[in-house]
Amino acid sequence: MASSSSFIANKKDLGLSALSSTSSPFSIPKCRKSISKKIVSVMAPQQSERKPATTGSVKIAMTMTEKILARASEKPQLSPGENVWVNVDTLMTHDVCGPGSIGIFKREFGDNAKVWDREKIVIIPDHYIFTTDERANRNVDILRDFCLEQNIKYFYDIKDLSNFKVNPDYKGVCHIALAQEGHCRPGEVLLGTDSHTCTAGAFGQFATGIGNTDAGFVLGTGKLLLKVPPTLRFVMDGEMPDYLLAKDLILQIIGEISVSGATYKSMEFVGTTVESLNMEERMTLCNMVVEAGGKNGVVPADSTTFKYLEDKTSVPYEPVYSDEQARFLSEYRFDISKLEPLVAKPHSPDNRALARECKDVKIDRVYIGSCTGGKTEDFMAAAKVFLASGKKVKVPTFLVPATQKVWMDVYSLPVPGSGGKTCSQIFEEAGCDTPANPSCGACLGGPKDTYARMNEPMVCVSTTNRNFPGRMGHKEGQIYLASPYTAAASALTGYVTDPREFL
Amino acid sequence: MAASSSTFTRNPTSIATSFNSKLSLSLFSPRSIKLPYIHPQPIIKPLGSHARPLPVLRATATPSAESTNATTFHGICYVVGDNIDTDQIIPAEYLTLVPSNPAEYEKLGSYALIGLPASYETRFIEPNEMKTKYSIVIGGDNFGCGSSREHAPVSLGAAGVAAVVAESYARIFFRNSVSTGEIYPLESEVRICEECKTGDVVTIELAESRLINHTTGKEYKLKPIGDAGPVIEAGGIFAYARKTGMIPLQSG
Fold this sequence. Notes:
A: 15 helices, 15% strand, B: 10 helices
């Protein structure tokens, strides 16, 4: 598997196609009574063992996203705009949308109905866990009851809220847990009741967020009607400067195309810069495609992907790659070596500015966490800035590891160049708050007693993904979205700060 | 197509006056009928249409899969701007409410658009009210961006909104609106959020893809709702799928 790392980087010029976007965004074809329940893992007509991208035998050149959906819908080829019934490899839901999805499943399929496949459903409590809110606690109970009743194989439960560490099954933020537990695999279709399900596109799979009703349908049938999106291709070349992180790249892109620039579209990330990114950084890139309105994001699987998956899954998978002649709606090119650290100013993720342009913005707090910026590499990056400065933070700095695994890493992995110190030691020396229980935390506000929720109209630099009014709690709160480098640098000065001041 | 006076008098409390198109076409000439009068009071659709434990009944009542929409919405509008995200439609602190639970469905409705900033001086829902008096929401670009929470279209539908008219929608919000059948997510051809004011009296004629602002006297063309229309009319994807025979009718 590792030998097939030669993904074809399409360096061709803009292949602007005249794809119509006027067709109905939602339509249901005539009755299909005889759809096979079988999940097809390999394209049927393909006799050769070689990858479709290398055989040249495909009739119509397709993008990665088109190929994944073609395979999942058991069709030899697909074009953007087609509506197809797709076989789902994995369905994920969590405590905020799971109870509603289960409610719809029961209402529509009956109280005694069984889910389509108990091993393909992953249920991850992560949003409102460490709260005394009774309804939030009840929602986790609903998940547990359902998982017991249906014998769901992958349920990452938490029962003792007083100490997450005594709950070995508990993971934390679903998108990070999915990757860490081996549920993200190249070439597959992953649907989840969370808009940031697109994070898993980092593994070269089709992954997108759906609502409760669609999830209820998938629970019962294992299928969903999806429209094939056209693809926007983002080619990022050049050596990434050591003061940049993937967060800067995606903020650059969203700033370029706006919060609706990729609506209904797939975003494919290629180029030497992308190839150089580790899996967690690729996840950051794909995580925020929904902030541009994107349906999904994809990074072609390569040796980095295969290596990450080695000890995480034994499920066979088959990566696919965009054909050289594949048609892209448009192509954007970036020379990353010239990019500077960025922020998204309030109140929109496309309100892009250079971090140094905002150096006079006084801040009240810093938040490092979430599916976007609460991974091990994100805390490593923040620790690197604190270590380089040797100073203390000037504003309260909240750290919320995404998962239990990330929390363990924060407390155990040595930070390079620190003489063996862990992130947690460096954070303590810098005067940060103690790393909190792993969960979605205050990224989306949540119940009033959520740790680090903005209950006052403050200014926060955050490694999270959205900064619309009220996102982290208070409606008049101001959120500057930034990379972990920029967030840590800002914590050290009390102003929005370019990390080059410390790195 | 346009509602007739008989429709209004037959069901004066219903905002969504929808009936079988074949019937309507045989009885009325669509082009000759004008709205007989403007309702002085905002009209809220009955609870039952969306609290719906029984979407199937409604679906089976009109077996034609090809029915064109003969639906008219009439009421006062609430106007918002661009990029109204799901946190403004229903802030995350209310997501503990489970939409498939009827009591919590109602409660979700009472919080619809509560996340709008203070710059919106007129409240969408008055304090201590469960419903809005605005049955039509008019927005700008990228309405419903952000989270995939189905609570967003559900809260609007539960509050008594029949349709949103925006320049464009975020993908998941549009899809959730259709699959739940909670609201019609209609697209305007021009930027009407700058020409309408909160409180204006408007009518939407779905078959004509038209919005009429009676307060200003202006008419606007809407983009056709297309294949999504019958799905919403049926009450969502499950109801539609049963109606069209894609999935069997529920037993019992």
